[in-house]
């Protein structure tokens, strides 16, 4: 007999009704600033999907605060509550960063948790030089391309309430870690940790970054749809970011349309799809919530973990 599913599955319409009276606190102009390259997200998506989601997260945050107060009561002390850690996982080009940036802004507009910080795990990729020394420059995004221990230490320190925790900074333009650049996180109410591999289990006897998560979201879609989004975004970037002479990919701006399509499809197949199938998709069942997108990027179904 198959194990019972821990998830309750809701249609977009059922989920939308769970917004109740959560107010819309975002304007169309602000949304424009937050959406990723080529992501068609609109205010209807924010209202139907993200407002119920922030209501759920607000309730969950309150529950976590109550749990930490219970531990204080037991120990007879008055320890400050630990930051609430939210993980966001999913494939390259699925739209995780739009989800993360939107939640960053929306959650910060609730008085209970106005201090929200966002970190993307590309900050913990090894610099290109190290990837080359290890013979894995074509494995960027695969588990071995990250300094896993530094990432776990970063999240552990934030969770422990260390006043200032620093992380490196990754640039998509330079396709590398920016030497000397740092992002500092100062005791937020909520830390969002977004990245391909945030739900990956730890090696034996080690801790994983998700051991520190209070909740996690997996952004999901059909592989064929994500491939189309990846290739379309690649063409968009070719006309915009890659046209910048400082871009690592500036040589792509000079390719013909057909050459660029072939290039993007090959990178998708040999790197990103492989990583999705081997490492990312198998972690979906560990998420607290799964957002299932249709081919137009809109969320069609939602799975929420009950147990
Ligand atoms: N080569 C690139 N140059 C500039 N921006 C990029 C490049 N690749 C991805 N991005 C942007 O970086 C962000 C993260 O992209 P990605 O890791 O594919 O995750 P996702 O699409 O799930 O957010 C997105 O906002 C995307 O538009
Ligand atoms: C930087 C990334 C590994 C994503 O990193 P994340 O923030 O999810 O850890 C990815 O966007 C990437 O650049 N992949 C390499 C293959 C490609 O250029 O598509």
From TrEMBL:
Keywords: ATP-binding, Coenzyme A biosynthesis, Cytoplasm, Kinase, Nucleotide-binding, Transferase. This is Pantothenate kinase. InterPro entries: P-loop_NTPase (IPR027417), PanK (IPR004566), PRK/URK (IPR006083). Pathway: Cofactor biosynthesis; coenzyme A biosynthesis; CoA from (R)-pantothenate: step 1/5. Residues 85-224 form the Phosphoribulokinase/uridine kinase domain. It comes from Sphaerisporangium album. It is found in: Cytoplasm. ATP binds at residues 90-97. Its main location: cytoplasm. It holds the Pfam family PRK.
């Amino acid at each position: 007999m198959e194990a019972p599913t821990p998830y309750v599955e809701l249609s977009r319409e059922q989920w939308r009704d769970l917004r109740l009276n959560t107010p819309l606190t975002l304007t169309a102009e602000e949304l424009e600033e937050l959406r990723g390259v080529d992501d068609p997200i609109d205010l209807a998506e924010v209202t139907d999907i993200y407002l119920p989601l922030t209501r759920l997260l607000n309730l969950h945050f309150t529950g976590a605060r109550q749990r930490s107060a219970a531990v204080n009561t037991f120990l007879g002390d008055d320890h400050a509550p630990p930051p609430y850690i939210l993980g966001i996982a999913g494939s390259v080009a699925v739209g995780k960063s739009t989800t993360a940036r939107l939640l960053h802004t929306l959650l910060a507009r609730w008085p209970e948790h106005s201090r929200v910080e966002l970190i993307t795990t590309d900050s913990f990729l090894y610099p290109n030089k190290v990837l080359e020394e290890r013979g894995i420059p074509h494995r960027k995004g695969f588990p071995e391309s990250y300094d896993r221990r530094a990432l776990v230490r970063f999240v552990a320190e934030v969770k422990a309430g260390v006043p200032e925790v620093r992380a490196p900074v990754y640039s998509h333009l330079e396709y590398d870690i920016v030497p000397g650049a740092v992002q500092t996180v100062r005791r937020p109410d909520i830390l969002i940790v977004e990245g391909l591999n945030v739900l990956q289990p730890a090696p034996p006897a080690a801790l994983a970054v998700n051991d520190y998560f209070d909740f996690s979201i997996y952004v999901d879609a059909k592989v064929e749809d994500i491939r189309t989004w990846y290739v379309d975004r690649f063409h968009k970037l070719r006309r915009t970011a890659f046209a910048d002479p400082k871009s690592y990919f500036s040589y792509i701006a000079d390719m013909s349309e057909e050459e660029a399509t072939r290039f993007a499809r090959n990178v998708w197949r040999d790197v990103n799809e492989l990583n999705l199938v081997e490492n990312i998709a198998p972690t979906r069942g560990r998420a607290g919530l799964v957002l299932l997108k249709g081919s137009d990027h809109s969320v069609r179904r939602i799975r929420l973990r009950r147990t």
